[in-house]
Amino acid sequence: MAIVVKDLNKIYRIGSMEIRAVRGLNLTVKEGEMIALIGPSGSGKTTLLNIIGGLDKATSGSITVFGKEITNFEPQELVEYRRQTVGHIFQTLNLIPTLTAAENAKLPMIALGASGEEQNRRVDELIDVVGLSERKNHKPGELSGGEQQRVAIAAALANDPAIILADEPTGELDSVNASIIVDYLNKVNKEMGKTIIMVTHDPTAARSADRILRIQDGVVRTDVEPVESQAKDSVNYADILKERISDIDRQLEELDDSFRKGSVTGDEFVEGQTKLKQTRSVLVDELHRLGILY
Ligand SMILES: Nc1ncnc2c1ncn2[C@@H]1O[C@H](COP(=O)(O)OP(=O)(O)OP(=O)(O)O)[C@@H](O)[C@H]1O
Ligand SMILES: [Mg+2]
């Protein structure tokens, strides 16, 4: 196993207020696997990624990475872990605006102290991996959003870490650029053998992973393989579920109309709506269980 997360809890304290961001979460990731983390805003995805990445401390529970319990690491061990074992692509891009693409990709290497020549050779290689050889001397402001995100991928790969953590790498991008980024991450996973955990709201991105884990209220609610790899029957089943959801959406619209026309009372409206929405959420959950985002 590359990563084993056991009974992880994270409580943030602001004054007297406690926010339980992660609540007894369990998760295992095999070496070479690509995992998509999906789930509503505020469900704890970034918190989880930051703790796995050694950027934030767990309140309780353990995380073992390649057999070492990082939750017990001394500060110095944690620094080395962050430099050598994980590459992090952040939810908000953190390229340095005054440095070129190549310099940004090189930055993480400087701390490790390889020779200048070795660093330059490796930067060229990585910039090539993400298809930016023509743009290597451009600064972030002179690159498109998708290109900037590719520089972030190159920087995350700089020290050849075994694990890549990507927090919404396609978040700000249009669908064409998003699919390019996902293709590069797939390539990094398949060809370079990196273990990847990617947080995403993008159904297409999630489907390209080996497994989709849905996080809700700080725990893993469902863990599925994308539907493409499942039997045809389940695709038909998914179609049936989708039809039923569309049907419920139609009924909800009709209910709105009836309420506007005054043909149902306020109480009837609320009751009808609650029931339909409950059924809808069960159907959507079932789709998620099949690995389909809706
Ligand atoms: N540094 C912090 N201090 C206090 N509360 C925090 C902190 N970071 C996150 N939280 C809270 O913890 C919960 C989980 O946040 P997190 O950022 O992990 O969610 P997320 O799933 O990544 O959401 P999104 O999809 O919006 O990025 C939220 O309620 C958030 O407000
Ligand atoms: Mg987040």
Sheet of most strands: 6 strands, mixed
CATH superfamily of the largest domain: P-loop containing nucleotide triphosphate hydrolases
Number of helices: 9
Residue ranges: pLDDT <50 for 5 or more in a row? none
Please count the beta strands (DSSP E, at least 2 residues each).
10
Mass-distribution shape: globular
Mean pLDDT: 91
Q: State the CATH topology of the largest domain.
A: Rossmann fold
Describe this structure in words.
- The structure is a single chain.
- This protein has two domains: 3-229, Rossmann fold (3-Layer(aba) Sandwich); 232-289.
- It has nine helices and ten strands.
- It is globular.
- The model has no long low-confidence stretch (mean pLDDT 91).
- α3 (101-110) packs parallel to α5 (145-157), α5 packs parallel to α6 (175-192) and α8 (232-261) packs antiparallel against α9.
- With 294 residues, the chain is of the alpha/beta class.
- α6 links the parallel β7 and β8 (195-199).
- The site of magnesium ion has 4 residues, from α1.
- Magnesium ion is lined by residues 45-46, 91, 167.
Please outline the helices and strands.
Blueprint: E1 3-14, E2 17-29, E3 34-38, H1 45-52, E4 60-65, E5 68-69, H2 75-84, E6 86-89, H3 101-110, H4 116-129, H5 145-157, E7 163-167, H6 175-192, E8 195-199, H7 203-207, E9 211-216, E10 219-224, H8 232-261, H9 266-289
Parallel strand pairs: 3-8, 3-9, 6-7, 7-8
Antiparallel strand pairs: 1-2, 1-4, 4-5, 9-10
Helix pairs in contact: 3-4, 3-5, 4-5, 5-6, 8-9
Bound molecules: adenosine-5'-triphosphate (ATP) and magnesium ion (MG).
